Amino acid sequence: MSGFFILIFYNLQIHHAIYDHSAMQSHSHAPLKRLLSLMAAILLLANGLWLLSLNSFHFGTLLPMLFGAALFIYALAYVLLQRWIRQRPIYQQGWRLVWGAFWIWLLSVALFFGYLHWQSLHSQPNPNTQAILILGGGIQHNQPTPTLAKRLNAGATLAKQLPQIPIIVSGGAAFGNQWTEAEVMAHYLTEQHHLPKTRILLEARSTSTALNFHNSKALLVQHDIQLSDPIAVVTSDFHLPRALAIARKQGYQQPLPYSAPTPLYIRYNSWLREYFAYVSGWLLNEY
Length: 287
Hints:
alpha/beta, 5-stranded parallel β-sheet, two-stranded antiparallel sheet, about 60% helix, elongated, membrane, Rossmann-like_a/b/a_fold, DUF218
């Protein structure tokens, strides 16, 4: 289970403590609350350190670790913190407001996760598809990351169902790798799925989702495919809503979603990272 959902479980356990005004009751429950805090902190921190050891370094990994560190400090200073809050009524109100805002944010995250799951269930092949566009997702040591491998596997499955249309693999140079991401993707499709090289078009300059779509336009034009035609967009489940929004912003009139599952061990951390990426993209008018 993701460390992020461990945090949710933890908050369900101690939520009552936030509004506990009885010193005797708070004191009697303090050992259990501190133990739960320490357990949650250790799990969150361990989950984050494990993901960092796998080179999964992004906001979705770091945020649960920050929560874990905060819970660890909370557990150590629990008695002092509760006493300090009880002695200052004005801070009790502020404490409630902080937790109220946190629960509203947590609800928005849960709704976003539900939307991602719902959309991933509605990825179906369309027989009118004119091209398949597989978005890059990272390479390491000239090999696809597990997330990118899932995208390529999904794209290959779709390509075998629609054997007459071209496949665009989009991804540029990656630091520390000899090959571009597009070259790694094409090699994986030919070696692992035995797709003919003649079907695969390489877009090897992109370093962002927006550039994936922008730079792929020239390849589509070369093959007489218009932006008004149905074009399958293959990417991870968490990335799909933002990718489709960016595609429409850039003039793709019929981007067809085709979802690839995110590996379970990084799924909810990746979904959490995408929550912030989706919000920031909206604020920056990317779609």
